[in-house]
Design a protein that fits this description.
Blueprint: E1 4-5, E2 36-40, E3 44-49, E4 52-53, E5 63-65, E6 71-73, E7 77-81, E8 90-95, E9 99-102, E10 108-110, E11 117-123, E12 127-135, E13 143-151, E14 154-159, E15 162-163, E16 169-173, E17 178-185, E18 202-208, E19 215-218, E20 227-228, E21 231-236, E22 240-247, E23 257-264, E24 267-276, E25 280-284, E26 290-297, E27 304-305, E28 307-313, E29 319-326, E30 335-336, E31 342-344, E32 347-350, E33 355-356, E34 365-372, E35 377-387, E36 393-399, E37 405-412, E38 422-428, E39 431-441, E40 444-450, E41 459-462, E42 491-495, E43 506-508, E44 518-522, H1 529-533, E45 535-542, E46 548-551, E47 558-560, E48 566-570, H2 573-576, E49 601-610, E50 613-622, E51 624-625, E52 631-637, E53 647-653, E54 669-673, E55 676-678, E56 685-688, E57 693-698, E58 713-716, E59 738-739, E60 745-750, E61 753-755, H3 757-761, E62 769-774, H4 780-783, E63 786-793, E64 813-822, E65 827-836, E66 852-857, E67 870-881, E68 887-898
Parallel strand pairs: 1-3, 2-13, 16-25, 26-35, 36-42, 43-51, 61-68
Antiparallel strand pairs: 3-11, 4-6, 5-6, 7-10, 7-12, 8-9, 8-11, 12-13, 14-15, 14-17, 17-22, 18-21, 18-23, 19-22, 20-21, 23-24, 26-28, 27-33, 28-32, 29-30, 29-34, 31-32, 34-35, 36-37, 37-40, 38-39, 38-41, 39-40, 41-42, 43-44, 44-48, 45-46, 45-49, 47-48, 49-50, 52-53, 53-57, 54-55, 54-58, 56-57, ...
């Protein structure tokens, strides 16, 4: 049957009434909005929606009068507005005499011939402010007809017309009966607290626990309650029910029972209505005492229940207390008390309890098995154990900070009142200290204390003698309000095991060869060899391929300083293939395969124990650069023609030099030339590539033959005020000397005139051209001849198979060509040759035995004939191989031959 007829679908269009979003059917002033409807959970209700006809439309044949004021249009489409119909809070459906298909938000419907579309709604879960209405289109502004509010009723209990509350105590004897009346009441809306008459013919199941398992429930006629699936139930009629309660044995712990109704459709074990009986219900034996109370204490202040005080009430003269049992603090399995008992009148003491609080709230029951000689009756009495254990510190862990404060992590034996914020609430070694609570998580709190105030091994406890000035928030107290005992224990402050890094972390190049070979890690507080076992250090650097590598030493590879504050690790660069000439973090050196990865830092994994729990922490820390720059490469571009022109010497360093922080002096670099270390003027220098490259213009005005050549050496020399990198690392005395690399210097000299008679002196079998060694200068014979004297500083080329420090002699050398013409350009003769650096000519090494070469023309043509007097042109070509780029020199000399033929 339809219970509701909604207002017209479009009647409210343009209406200025309150917007639905502003309507609250639960929290309102005065009376609720007229559209608010209150529906008990799991109850259905029907309603109709229609399209209202206005003005001349009411005269249409499609208009039907539905009440004294309104007309509705037949066969008209509209949309159902129910934005919460698509979740599980409500079930909306078509209703045409029977339940039809479910309806979703903005479903399209038609009013039909009756001009009314009938629907039903069922509240599946308690939920409030659920709008239902219509819209002319999916995008149109909806018109809300009703706002449903689904509630679960509550239960109220009455005894003899008086409502039962948590202060109600009912005492009966075993065998007595008690009538209990119960009402289901509405919980929201204008009818709140009124009897909910919709709770009709509904079953509410009875549940008992503790001593209440001895309770017996019957109907008012004395019959047993009906059961379903083994559970007894009472039936409500128009929101009310009544039943009788008996006890088959004593019920002394004040236990109660619960009535449960309306099963949760999402969980068959739960009910929407759970109505516990709020008062204390006791049934006692007339010949036995009552077990009035049991309280557990912490007499030694360690936070553990160690003594229970038991109070009986009633006549104890003929009563023998046989045994005690308790299940505090878990509330589960009972333990039999086996210690000694004390007794003072009706009060018993059980001093040999030793129970620690659990993570959850402590609770429990005490049972006493007693017998009376009067009537020979025995029974087990029960009562709840009252917790009287105050707050106590069980574990305190120090976590050192990096600034002005440290953190003290404290685990209490139970949850602590969070209203405490700061003050001198802790006592350290007998003296109050200030602490600020920065995190409160039940029984685990974090306090900030001044740095250095608390040390590992100190003793800490809760301060209980503290005035308002020192402790504005009072004493640290348990959340349950139990006062903190003055004799609460003090506990030693533990080390968390956390490693605190200092700033003394660094990468080193101890031998100065430009490769990382050792690291050091500094600690704020000393560590031990045992700490090393819980640590895992990893350092990140580059290999020669530019890939990021992990240097992960084992504890046996680490060296701990005598004071425990510095840890060292020596690295074998070859075993890790550590990149050469890398003395700083340089992202440009990272390979494509490691693109995006960082290096030059370290990580520390360490097992940390806080509040008795082991966790592994990993922290990244930056490393300082203590590596001095080295010469990564160099190249000499020598001058071979003009002695006033300088040589250009380019030095590339392993990292940028901070050239603004020092003055370039001649002693910054030293050069090994002709068997001695010397200095050159370095004042003419250009810096580029951010300080990584320096170009020196050297030896202008110096004889070309006296200058430095490739294969000489260069090294650092000023180690106190010389070259320095951006991190302040000055060049190292350990840095090895480096061979000067470069292109060749080819110096050519010639004799311009010779006497033709000199040709007469030569044998007829002499070759037109000959080549000779010259140690220093031409001898008298060669000086009287025509030719070219070459002083060649060969270019350097390295043997890639043997490493960068080995010269490739086989692939270094020169090719020369000499052409002679008359002054008219007529060809006379030519010669050519190739000499390798490892040729016998240089005794196997042109760098170690750099003889000059003299190519002499013996004044003969290619066919061996002597030439005549006159002017000749000599074209000389020299190509040096092994240079980084092709190096070719061409010179043309004018030679003159004088004298007369014989």
């Amino acid at each position: 049957m339809l219970l509701l007829l909604a207002t017209g679908t479009f009647a409210a269009e343009g209406d200025e009434s309150s917007k639905v979003k502003d309507v609250d059917c639960v929290n309102y002033d005065g009376s609720p909005d007229g559209r608010c409807v209150y529906l008990r959970v799991l109850r259905s209700q029907g309603f109709s929606l229609f399209v209202e006809a206005h003005d001349e439309d009411t005269l249409s044949a499609d208009a039907v009068k539905i009440n004294s004021r309104q007309y509705a249009l037949k066969n008209t489409d509209f949309y159902v507005y129910a934005p919460l119909a698509d979740n599980d809070s409500i079930y909306l459906f078509r209703y045409e005499g029977a339940i039809g298909d479910s309806v979703h938000n903005l479903d399209k419907v038609n009013s039909g011939e009756r001009a009314l579309a009938n629907f039903g709604i069922k509240g599946m879960y308690p939920y409030v402010n659920i709008p239902v209405g219509t819209a002319s289109s999916p995008s149109a502004k909806p018109d809300t007809s009703r706002i449903y509010n689904i509630y679960a009723p509550a239960l109220k209990y009455y005894v003899a017309g008086e409502e039962v509350t948590d202060a109600t105590k009912l005492q009966l004897e075993v065998g007595d009966s008690l009538q209990i009346d119960v009402e289901a009441v509405v919980t929201i809306g204008p009818d709140a607290n009124a009897v909910d008459t919709t709770v009709d013919k509904e079953k509410f199941y009875v549940s008992t626990f503790g001593d209440s398992d001895n309770l017996i429930f019957k109907t008012l006629s004395g019959a047993d309650l009906e059961t379903a699936n083994g559970k007894a139930y009472v039936i409500f009629s128009k929101g009310k029910s009544s039943f009788l309660v008996y006890a088959s044995a004593s019920v002394t712990d004040g236990s109660n029972f619960t009535l449960s109704g309306y099963k949760n459709p999402g969980d068959s074990k739960k009910y929407f209505v759970e109505g516990p009986f709020p008062g204390e219900l006791r049934f006692g034996n007339p010949d036995l005492p009552d077990l009035e109370s049991a309280v557990i204490f912490d007499t030694d202040g360690d936070g553990m229940g160690d003594s229970i005080s038991v109070q009986f009430a009633g006549n104890m003269d003929s009563v023998d207390v046989k045994d005690f049992f308790y299940n505090w603090p878990s509330g589960d399995k009972f333990k039999k008390y086996s210690g000694d008992e004390t007794r003072t009148g009706d009060q018993f003491g059980l001093p040999d309890i030793d129970e620690a609080l659990q993570d959850k709230d402590a609770s429990g029951v005490l049972k006493a098995y007693v017998c009376s000689s009067v009537g020979n009756r025995c029974d087990t009495l029960r009562t709840n154990i009252k917790d009287s254990v105050g707050a106590v510190i069980q574990v305190a862990t120090l976590v050192k900070g990096s600034g002005d404060t440290d953190t003290l992590i404290v685990r209490f034996n139970k949850d602590v009142d969070e209203s405490w914020t700061e003050g001198e609430g802790l006592k350290l070694n007998g003296e109050r200290i200030y602490a600020e609570a920065i995190q409160k998580d039940g029984n685990v709190w974090k306090f900030l204390v001044a740095s250095g105030v608390v040390s590992v091994g100190d003793k800490v406890k809760i301060e209980t003698d503290c005035g308002k000035d020192a402790c504005p928030d009072g004493i640290l107290t348990a959340a349950d309000g139990i006062p903190t005992s003055k004799n609460n224990q003090e506990v030693p402050v533990q080390n968390s095991g956390r490693i605190y890094m200092s700033e003394n972390n660094g990468f080193y190049d101890r031998d100065g060869d430009g490769r990382l070979d050792s690291v050091s890690v500094g600690f704020e507080t000393p560590i031990t060899e045992d700490d090393l076992k819980n640590m895992n250090l990893t350092f990140y650097w580059l290999d020669n391929d530019g890939d990021v590598i992990e240097l992960n030493p084992s504890p046996r590879d680490l060296t701990l300083s005598s004071d425990g504050t510095v840890l060292g690790f020596s690295i074998d660069p070859k075993s890790y293939d550590v990149m050469e000439k890398l003395t700083a973090v340089d992202p440009t050196r990272v390979s494509k395969t490691s693109d995006g990865r960082e290096y030059g830092y370290a990580t520390l994994s360490n097992k940390v124990t806080i509040d008795g729990k082991d966790t592994t922490e990993e922290v990244r820390f930056e490393m300082n650069d203590y590596m001095a720059p080295v010469i990564a490469s160099n190249f000499l571009n020598p001058e071979s023609f003009q002695y006033m022109s300088p040589d250009k010497f380019v030095v590339t360093f392993s990292e940028p030099i901070d050239y603004e922080k020092f003055s370039m002096t001649d002693d910054c670099l030293s050069f090994y030339v002709d068997g001695a270390w010397i200095h050159y003027s370095l004042t003419s220098v250009e810096w580029s590539d951010g300080g990584r490259k320096a170009t020196f213009y050297m030896e202008a005005g110096t004889d070309l033959a006296e200058r430095m050549n490739p294969a000489d050496s260069v090294k650092f020399d000023n180690f106190t005020s010389g070259l320095v990198d951006a991190n302040g690392n000055r060049v190292s005395e350990q840095a090895p000397s480096v061979m000067v690399e470069g292109d060749p210097r080819v110096i050519m000299q010639t004799t311009s005139f010779a006497d033709l008679n000199r040709a007469e002196e030569l044998s007829d079998r002499v070759k037109p051209f000959t080549i000779d060694h010259v140690k220093t200068s031409l001898d008298k014979d060669n000086a009287a001849s025509l030719g070219v004297l070459m002083d060649v500083g060969f270019s350097t080329i390295m043997n890639s198979d043997s490493g960068a420090s080995v010269l490739d002699l086989e692939n270094s050398g020169l090719v020369w060509e000499l052409y002679v013409y008359t002054n008219m350009g007529v060809y006379v003769g030519s010669a050519s040759g190739k000499i390798a650096c490892d040729d016998e000519f240089f005794e196997g090494n042109c760098f170690e035995n750099p003889d000059k070469l003299y190519v002499r023309w013996n004044m003969r043509s290619d066919d061996g004939r002597k030439v005549g007097v006159g002017v000749y042109l000599a074209k000389f070509k020299v190509k040096v191989f092994g240079a980084k780029e092709e190096f070719l020199i061409e010179r043309v000399f004018r030679w003159g031959i004088t004298g007369s033929r014989k």
